[in-house]
Amino acid sequence: MERFDGRVAVVTGGAGGIGRALGERFARAGMKVVLADLDSEPLGRAVDEMRATGHSVIGVETDVSERASVEALADRAYDEYGAIHVCCNNAGVGAGAEGKVWDHTDNDWGWGLSVNLWGVIHGIQAFVPRMLDGGDDGHVVNTSSSNGGIAPLTSTAIYASTKAAVTTLSEVLWGQLRSVDAKIGVSVLYPGPKVLRTGLLESASKRPDRWQNETPRATPFTTIASFEARMRASGIEPDYTPVESVAEEAFAGIRENRFWILPASDRTDGKIRARAASLLDRSEPTYLEDL
Ligand SMILES: NC(=O)c1ccc[n+]([C@@H]2O[C@H](COP(=O)([O-])OP(=O)(O)OC[C@H]3O[C@@H](n4cnc5c(N)ncnc54)[C@H](O)[C@@H]3O)[C@@H](O)[C@H]2O)c1
Q: Does residue 226 lie within any of the structural domains?
């Protein structure tokens, strides 16, 4: 996609973190922005703050895990702006990390899959047909993670599984849009190369009631504080990638129509090579890491 001014972007999970930074980057390029999020309070704040700097923005309270909610988001976006050109399926949750595959409950899996995977499916199904009908050029960005999208951290079974699925789904979407000569590009976004200090590590605190477990966890979820304490205990000073640089990287990827939006990193490249080598050698996946 080459032209951005006056066009329209929708960003799920747009109230904070990477989503809000994406919204702000698009607005700076002259785009109208639709921010969608489950969390109404920061969503309202993001909309007010962006409007105060002169941008055209609406906020739509949305639960990406619910098809009807995402369809309602698309209706609202098209009523307001008449088109969507960039669709960022970005909403995601940490999804009960640190569990064993065999210990996680159905509600643990249900929450992670419904937001991180169904959320992306719903976004594609609600927006891509309308984007195709509109006939303009456009772009879909699905947010994966190097954790799962490249290689999983063994402590994050659910999260990594959903992000692997988002990578595969994006590859398939790219191929299918190409097969119908669509003018819609696709990218899969791997925020990083380092962790970002966003709400993700604390998303368990916002887990909806319907996905709560009957029995509380025996051990507390990770928080930013416990994550940093663990890093320091292993001699690593916490160091983060800023959300703005992920948004900049994503914007450049859309402009250049790059499928893989994967920041340069020797560490990540090393993992890709090690994983490919393991597959080609039919050897054990010894490249796996824990948190
Ligand atoms: N933070 C990182 O280091 C990192 C690394 C790789 C990938 N990611 C991915 O980036 C994306 C954005 O995460 P972030 O780091 O900005 O975290 P964040 O928690 O700051 O932002 C995620 C947003 O999604 C919203 N959300 C949660 N459930 C939702 C639902 N059901 N419907 C609609 N909105 C919902 C939250 O309210 C929040 O505003 C996620 O997909 C995440 O998996 C993050």
A: yes
Q: Which of 10, 18, 20 to mutate to test the pocket of ligand 1 (most atoms within 8 A of CB)?
A: 18
Q: Determine the structural domain holding residue 143 and report its residue range.
A: 8-266
The number of the ligand 1 atom at minimal distance from the alpha carbon of 42 is 39
**Cα–Cα distance measured from residue 226 to residue 272, given in angstroms and rounded to the nearest whole number:** 29
Residue 117 sits in a domain of what CATH number?
3.40.50.720
Residue 284: phi and psi, rounded to 5, are -65, 150
Q: Does residue 290 sit within a domain?
A: no
Q: How many domains does the chain have?
A: 1
Convert the pLDDT of each residue in 198-236 to its tens digit: 999 889 888 999 999 887 776 667 788 888 898 899 888
Three-class HEC string of 95-121: CCCCCCCCCCCHHHHHHHHHHHHHHHH
**Per the domain annotation, does 283 fall within a domain?**
no
Determine the distance separating the centroid of ligand 1 and the alpha carbon of 243, expressed in angstroms: 11
Backbone angles phi, psi at 185, to 5 degrees: -85, 165
Measured CA distances, 166 to 25, 33, 195, 273 (Å)? 23, 23, 19, 20
The answer, as to whether pTM is greater than 0.90, is yes
Is the minimum distance from the CB of 90 to ligand 1 under 6 angstroms? yes
The residue nearest atom 25 of ligand 1, judged by CA position, is: 13
Ligand 1 atom closest to Cα of 63?
A: 32
Q: Is residue 285 a part of any domain in this protein?
A: no
14 CB under 6 A from ligand 1?
no
Q: What is the mean pLDDT of residues 148-175?
A: 96
Which three-class secondary structure state does DSSP give residue 275?
helix
Residue 57 phi, psi dihedral angles, 5° rounding: -140, 140
